[in-house]
Amino acid sequence: MARRGESLELAVLGLLHESPMHGYELRKRLNLMLGWSRLLSYGSLYPALKKMLRAGLIAETAVPGDATSVVSRRQRIVYETTPAGEQHFKELLNEVGPAAWEDDSFDIRFAFFSRTDLSSRLRIMEGRRSRLQERLDRVQAQLDRTQREVDRYAGELQRHGLESVQREVRWLSDLIDAEHRRQEQDHKAPGTQTPGTQTTSNATQE
To answer: Is 193 part of any domain?
Structure first.
């Protein structure tokens, strides 16, 4: 639960970092980020917002509603990050340990990779790939042991799980390779001296 709470804090702070939002808009954006399999209810969102308000991570402002509309006439509460919330957001982004690799947090961390430095992105993706590879080995071993003991549909379900993990491992491997290529390009960017350049220049002058 603690990890899930931190993941939700990271998502809320990341979205409010972009712009202040009221609860309805925030929930809509969070559900787009989390995906259909992890839809967030108001019953989960508002207790989390109240906790973050008490901690001073976000602030709320009452905004007058639209006087021309009966539906939206009442005041709306708009949430925004505080300086403490901005600092906490940066701290959460810089965490690259096992908690960042888990199912409940990896997708959210990935959504904010544009604000995460390259080395941290690589550590998180490589950690996630290692964790999935361990899971892949367990699922494969289980499938090998039980394929003669379970019926057709149970076997197909296990195979589906195996293929899903394999696809994510391949996807991560492609992303990691691309990040390594970007890292190499950054080292070779204009203004950086590649090994042997100075020696060749001196030899030419002689």
So the answer is: no
Calculated CA dihedral for residues 102, 106, 109, 111, nearest 10 degrees: -170
The residues that bridge with 50 in the sheet, in sequence order, are: none
Amino acid identity of residue 170, one-letter, is R
Range of the domain at 20: 2-65+74-103
Asked if 107 and 34 count as a contact pair (C-beta separation under 8 A), the reply is yes
- Does any domain span residue 196? no
Token pair of 165, please? Answer: 């993990």
Q: Does 87 map to a domain? A: yes
Nearest-Å Rg of the Cα atoms of the chain is: 24
- The reported pTM is 0.74
CA 96 to CA 127: how far, in whole Å? 9
Confidence label for 194 from pLDDT (cuts 50, 70 and 90): very low
Residues 7, 99: one domain? Answer: yes
3-state secondary structure of 39: coil
* 61 bridge partner residues: 78
Measured CA to CA, the distance from residue 186 to residue 46 in angstroms comes to 43
